[in-house]
Structures are given as C-alpha cells and as structure tokens.
Amino acid sequence: MSATVVGVERYFREAVAYGAEGVVIKAATGPYQAGKRGWLRIKFKREYQKQVADTFDLVVVGAPRGKGYRAGTYGSLLLASFDPATNKYYTLTKVGAGFSDQLLRSLPKVLTPYVVREKHRLVETGMRANVWFEPVNVVEIAGTELTVSPVHTVARRLLKRGGLALRFPRFVRIRDDKAAEQATSVGEIYDIYRSAMRRAKNRSHR
User: How many CA within 13 A on the CB side of residue 62?
Assistant: First the structure.
C-alpha cells in the first residue's frame, strides 16, 4: 500500500509540474455515477496539499478598488515582507479571501489615513494597484505554497529568476500589536521556501 501511495504522490507532483491543477483518483472497480463522486472518485488539487505550515505577518502596501459587492471598499490587499538589510518592502501576495463583510466595510476607514499618491519609495513590486499606502499596517496571512513569481519581489535577488509569491492566501487577522519593521522578513520567507524545496526533493527520491 505504501508503494502505491508513493506512486500516486509522484504522479501528482508530475502533473502539477506540467501545469495541471491536480489529479482525479478513482476506485478501479467503482461504477460511474453521474453528478456524484463520493469516495469512488476524489479530486486532489495542489491547494489541498498544504506545504506552508506557518502564517506570515505582512505589510499592506496597496489595493485595487472593489467591484460588485465590494464596491466602496477594496477588492483585495497587496502585501509585502520587510527586508532589514535594504530597509525596503517586497511584495509576496495579494489577498482577497478570509475577510468578513464587517471587516471589508471597515478597511477604508482603517487604511485611508495612510493613502499616498503613488507607490511608496520603499516598496518594490511588479504589481499594479489603484491605491497605494504607506507601509504601516500589518496583517496575518495563511497560505498553502511558496512559488516563484515574475511580478512579486521577495528574495528576487537571491533567486535571480523572479521573486517568491504565496499561493492561495487567506486573511487571518489584523496585527495591531506589530510595527511594519516587525513583519515576517524576506530572509525568513526564503528559508521557509528552501526548506519546502528540500522536503519535496527528498520525497521525489524515495
């Protein structure tokens, strides 16, 4: 059984590497049931395999304007990590999930005092935003995986092929107790990424 599980995991990683969202696993003797899966057919997508156990304290640096039911507030928040070596903020992700309706409505009141006319001089990103903020407010974010991105900038000087980005981010809470300089650092995020890559390499050699 363990050999079968290892084979499935290897096939899953190969499918994701080719750009697939995941795999469908079907019982060999299970009959087809239209519109139903149950445990005869299950989907295993890359976001179900949580590779990042930590949460991240990140700094709000920008946002797109909200549309539809988010009109009047922000559609998501552009978030950055602090690098004490350069005294700059490098974007890691844009989060739009995990907000309660009440919190969404409160975001303009919380963030408007920190609006600036253009991207702050200490912020490095390839992302665009309708609204830019001073790097002051810190939020806690959960995610599933760190990947290389052409537009985000965390550890870009170390990777030399893009920056790190956090996939499937989800808002956890506002961190009123932390200053921007206390946010999760670029070095800490890079170390987490390297550890995840080592674990993946070890699994592939089993």
Answer: 27
